[in-house]
């Protein structure tokens, strides 16, 4: 599908059915499109609004950075999936919402009217607000452009990097630190600045102990301090990390400003407050999932695992709202989720609740799961 050139998309055709707008091509919306391809789209006009025609699967970014996947392997064709699901694809970015008036505004000046809206844009980067400004910083977010930005930074360096740092002790930051070691080999110094809570906060002692041994095995230094930039110098706690060539920040998602500015109920951090059916607490005709949303009935971590699994519930709930058929569904996370953290070209740490193991089979399993998930969407996009 091609982008629609008209400034007022609400006027394209006579309205004969409800209009659903999917804002953002995040992992939950991929699940919505997949459901509608497999089961048939609801009796509604659907518009997919996304800044990029292709989205990159976040789980394959460390492996791609390390050079183990080709640049195209982790891409999912959102525009093609939208076309197969019977949706109109609009290549643009949402910058404002009027939930009471049921309209969206885009960066190019288009106005899109909707009856029901689902938001899965992901969060925004927070490196500048958290640690300060520095030209050496490359924030993981926006995820879709991260690899191009880090490649540009590496190519623009005067010499081979001597010291690389990753800021962020969550699973994403940990995997990126190991990915840098695989990409550059043993020569550069690599430092993981985890924050005061250390690496893998919230995970069990066994997983953290295995990680500590893996960091030592790969000569990756770890500092359990908060990072900051002060007068052009990069610090971890009271320790200067200079000289330093490149800093990758993986600090989790911050909330975009436009949902709160439009009047949607948000939590104290600015994320869209939703109920167990992913509906906005203030405007139940607006749904949200993924990093941009915050469940209010129970804590759900901002993780790609949960974004992926919430897609089926989101699809069912949008179908119910548009047609009145079926029932509202809720995504309820399992007591524990399986995490697979790549540490080497063939090895990974597998974590499931208090259980943690390191070896080749978790690495093989991770590669198989990641490739299988991406390929499933490629098959759907090509299906007839």
UniProtKB/TrEMBL annotation:
Keywords: FAD, Flavoprotein, Oxidoreductase. Pfam families: Pyr_redox_2 (PF07992). Its cofactor is FAD. The keyword Methyltransferase does not apply. Residues 19-300 form the FAD/NAD(P)-binding domain. It comes from the Bacteria. InterPro entries: FAD/NAD-bd_sf (IPR036188), FAD/NAD-binding_dom (IPR023753), NADH-Q_oxidoreductase (IPR051169). This is NADH dehydrogenase FAD-containing subunit.
């Amino acid at each position: 599908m091609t982008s629609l050139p008209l400034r007022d998309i609400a006027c394209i055709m006579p309205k004969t059915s409800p209009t659903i707008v999917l804002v953002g091509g995040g992992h939950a919306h991929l699940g919505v499109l997949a459901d509608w391809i497999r089961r048939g789209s609801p009796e509604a006009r659907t518009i997919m609004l996304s800044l990029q025609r292709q989205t990159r699967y976040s789980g394959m970014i460390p492996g791609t950075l390390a050079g183990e996947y080709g640049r195209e392997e982790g891409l999912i064709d959102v525009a093609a999936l939208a076309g197969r699901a019977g949706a109109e694809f609009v290549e643009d970015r949402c910058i404002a919402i009027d939930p009471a008036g049921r309209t969206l505004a885009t960066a190019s000046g288009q106005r899109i009217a909707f009856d029901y809206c689902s938001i899965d844009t992901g969060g925004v980067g927070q490196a500048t607000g958290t640690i300060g400004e520095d030209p050496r910083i490359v924030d993981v977010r926006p995820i879709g452009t991260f690899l191009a930005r880090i490649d540009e930074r590496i190519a623009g360096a005067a010499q081979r990097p001597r010291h690389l740092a990753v800021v962020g002790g969550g699973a994403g930051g940990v995997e990126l630190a190991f990915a840098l070691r695989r990409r550059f080999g043993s020569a550069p110094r690599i430092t993981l600045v985890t924050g005061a809570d250390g690496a893998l906060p919230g995970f069990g002692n066994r997983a953290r102990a295995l990680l500590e041994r893996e960091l030592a095995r790969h000569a990756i230094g770890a500092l359990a301090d908060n990072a900051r930039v002060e007068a052009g110098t990069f610090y971890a706690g009271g320790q200067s990390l200079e000289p330093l060539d490149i800093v990758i920040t993986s600090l989790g998602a911050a909330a975009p400003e436009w949902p709160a500015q439009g009047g949607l109920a948000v939590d104290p951090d600015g994320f869209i407050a939703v109920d167990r059916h992913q509906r906005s607490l203030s405007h139940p005709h607006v749904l949200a999932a993924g990093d941009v949303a915050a469940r209010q009935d129970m804590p759900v971590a901002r993780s790609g695992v949960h974004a992926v699994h919430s897609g089926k519930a989101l699809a069912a709930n949008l179908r119910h709202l548009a047609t009145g058929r079926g029932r509202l569904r809720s995504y309820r996370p399992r007591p524990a989720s399986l995490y697979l953290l790549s540490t080497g070209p063939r090895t990974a740490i597998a974590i499931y609740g208090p259980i943690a193991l390191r070896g080749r089979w978790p690495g093989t399993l991770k590669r198989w799961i990641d490739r299988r998930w991406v390929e499933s969407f490629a098959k759907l996009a090509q299906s007839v």
